[in-house]
Amino acid sequence: xxxxxxxxxxxxxxxxxxxxxxxxxxxxxxxxxxxxxxxxxxxxxxxxxxxxxxxxxxxxxxxxxxxxxxxxxxxxxxxxxxxxxxxxxxxxxxxxxxxxxxxxxxxxxxxxxxxxxxxxxxxxxxxxxxxxxx
Length: 134
Description:
- By secondary structure, this protein is of the alpha+beta class.
- 40% of the residues lie in helices and 25% in strands.
- The chain has a single domain (6-131), classed as Transposase IS200-like (Alpha-Beta Plaits).
- The protein is built from 4 helices and 6 strands; from the N terminus they run βββαββααβα.
- Strand 4 (52-58) and strand 5 (62-69) form a beta hairpin.
């Protein structure tokens, strides 16, 4: 049996996305316990929503993570949820530190993000497969 794909209610899929979130103003604050806590919080969110984390790592001002998700989920909703819940959590835990970094409360991530879907094969392979049909 092919384990590369998920199966659920007559659906067969493999949806994976690489997401990068950057701290507001590229502040280099994803270090030490803040980096550990943001990763743990993302793990907790993903576990509660049924997303699988394949890889995750922080740099000083951004975090990369690769997750798999269900066909009923939208990537923009996943990003929004993670940004909202991690921001709230970090402000609860690190309010004194974050209030010195940001003049406005409840800010942590920049407005944008990087998102890239990935697959098991290259675009060229899929194109050749589609062109060979019929």
